[in-house]
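Bit of a strange request maybe. I'm writing a small parser for structure token strings and I need a real example to test against, not something I typed by hand. Could someone generate the tokens for this chain?
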Amino acid sequence: MKRVIITGIIFLFLSVYGICNVSEDLRNADNLHNAYRYAEENTLLLSLVNKAQGNKEKAEVYWRLARVTVYLGDDSEDRGDSKNKILSFFEQGEEYANKAMELDPGNHLAYYWKSANIGRWGQVKGILNALNKARPMQVLLVQAINLDPAHADSFNVLGELYDELPGFPISFGNIDYSVSLARKCISLHEEDRTVGREPRIKYGYYIKLAKHLYKRNWNTKKRIEKQEGKEKKYGKEKNILEKNFYYEGTISIKNMSDREEAKEIMNKVIAELNGISNRDKEQNDDLADANKIKAGW
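Reply from user aminoacidic:
Good idea to test on real output. This should exercise your parser:
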């Protein structure tokens, strides 16, 4: 009996140690990701597939694998690899995301990263394929925000979708919806910053809002006139996506035109990024993007 008890205690200790160890490994994977060391991140995550305990922890590994394949695919495209090789990353990423969804249907990041992989697959494959992937992406992103209504990244991508797609009858694009979704994204991001959930400013969100505003191109009068109707629609809608089509109606907007606000936002982004002496890759990319867009205005 004593031996059985001791064996049970040892087994329990090893199980708890393994779980703690996997949690630490996941944090290390996130650190590698934030340092743009994607190949190392991928290797570490693959080593955790059989090490993780229970469905939820395994799902944490798989959604991260779905995430890293997006970046590995992007790097492959930057290297000029064949289209088939690039697509294989996103196809693998979709499989990882599916696995995460099966293991933990309540994990919003599984849906988000599946959407990211199929979106990039469509972009690389070509415009018609990108259009065909738009609706599945929308469905996945709506699932993500239903599971986590405070997920800024999902609102950011939804804003891009509604900007980049053509409108009815070809697709469901709507630039006015893009502006509201981008404002919602930034509101959530700033809340995350305030409470310490997000340590850094994601300048890409502000660049996207500026792009949407410049494209919408409403004058000052129209912006003000539309606010009351949007506020009413926001209050009436129950569907989380459709409600946030009118999020702009709930905030105070500046007494200026869309393009004036777009330029103000972009100038602020460029000034802040120029003021960072030790910019990382993401910040350099954002600065290059902002300067390129502004030059086209």
